[in-house]
Specification:
By secondary structure, this protein is mainly alpha-helical. It has 15 helices and 5 strands.
């Protein structure tokens, strides 16, 4: 039996055991129902029933994401295609794609998910040590590497960023570099904030937040693609990350409150968020809204509704890896998928569901 076969067999066995445990628990609760303990038993049954389907969904989707990992033109080894089926990758998607497997591992406990994430981490470390550190580091890579335990490497590469830009000049650079798509700049800067927090650069994170608030009129606009809601949601996530290490000042609190109101108000009755043009439901924006809202008590109810929509829209892949769970990048207002599948969105959904 090959190592791959043994791994698959082991994971299948773990799945079978989990299913049996879940079914056994339901049978036990049914058989041992006692009138005097009805309330507590019903609460336990409801919690088990709600948690198990989500865990199974994440496990199946992570297995699918793992199966898509490989070497593709334009990217690193142990990475992903950007657009599934294109056979082409990009060097800036490794960390953001692998992060979903780490998140899935925290929920499922399956070592196969962690092992695949760590393969991507090793590929990134080799690339940066081989000369990538002379380029602008991708902050999503730094977020991922810190979460994967490569904190020293992550901190070293973040220092490349801080040696070239002050926090203010970095924010200005990102807004300028996005050009006609500057509504995405908030999404970029939010990642830099989370990366700074992850490597202990809390003062730099604070300065990034101060500048992005000051420059809000420059990025929170209806530019090409209109990614304002994606940026707002990602910044909510960044603010939650920052406040786990430092208290928010009055200005940051007002900014967070405004973002919370805006993101929550934009949620549709289905639990999802619209695309920038308002013509479809956006999987990516919904994933970031969940990630952002989950860090705030007033946003958790909306985050749960977003999770329910994500679970409800997962479909069985019949094109790339038969039987896996997958999400389209957008869904038409009638609920039909657009048939466009992007790897980083699969990872972002995994992170949202596991949060």
């Amino acid at each position: 039996m090959t190592r791959l076969t043994r791994r698959v067999a082991k994971d299948d066995a773990e799945k079978d055991v989990k299913v049996l445990i879940f079914k056994g628990m339901r049978r036990y609760l049914a058989q041992r129902y006692l009138a005097g303990a009805a309330a507590s038993l019903l609460l336990l049954s409801a919690a088990t029933a709600n948690a198990a389907p989500l865990k199974v969904e994440v496990e199946d989707a992570a297995d699918h994401h793992l199966a898509l990992q490989g070497a593709f033109k334009g990217g690193l080894s142990n990475s992903w295609e950007w657009l599934l089926g294109s056979k082409r990758s990009s060097k800036n998607i490794v960390g953001i794609n692998a992060h979903g497997l780490l998140a899935a591992h925290r929920l499922t406990g399956l070592q196969s998910h962690e092992r695949s994430a760590l393969k991507a981490a090793k590929a990134l470390v080799a690339a940066y040590d081989g000369g990538w550190r002379n380029r602008r580091p991708h902050t999503q890579d730094i977020e991922f590497l810190a979460a994967a335990g490569y904190v020293i490497d992550a901190a070293k590469w973040f220092r490349v960023l801080t040696s070239r830009w002050t926090a203010s000049s970095y924010v200005d650079y990102v807004i300028r570099r996005r050009g006609g798509y500057r509504s995405l700049a908030g999404w970029d800067i939010a990642s830099a904030v989370r990366a700074a927090v992850a490597v202990g650069e809390v003062n730099y994170a604070r300065a990034l937040l101060d500048r992005v608030i000051t420059r809000r009129a420059s990025w929170d606009v209806a530019s090409n693609g209109n990614s304002r809601m994606l940026s707002r949601a990602s910044l909510l996530w960044a603010l939650a990350s920052y406040k786990s290490r430092s208290s928010l000042d009055t200005r940051q609190q007002r900014f967070a409150s405004a973002l919370l109101r805006s993101v929550m108000a934009a949620q549709t009755s289905r639990g999802a968020w619209l695309s920038g043009d308002g013509k479809s439901l956006s999987t990516q924006t919904t994933a970031y809204a969940v990630l952002g809202l989950a860090g705030w008590p007033t946003g958790q109810r909306s985050a749960k509704a977003g999770k329910r929509w994500l679970v409800s829209t997962a479909s069985t892949d019949r094109k790339f890896v038969a039987g896996g769970r997958i999400w389209a990048s957008h869904y038409k207002l009638d609920g039909k998928p657009t048939q466009r599948y992007i790897s980083e969105i699969q990872s972002e959904v995994l992170q949202a569901l596991a949060r």
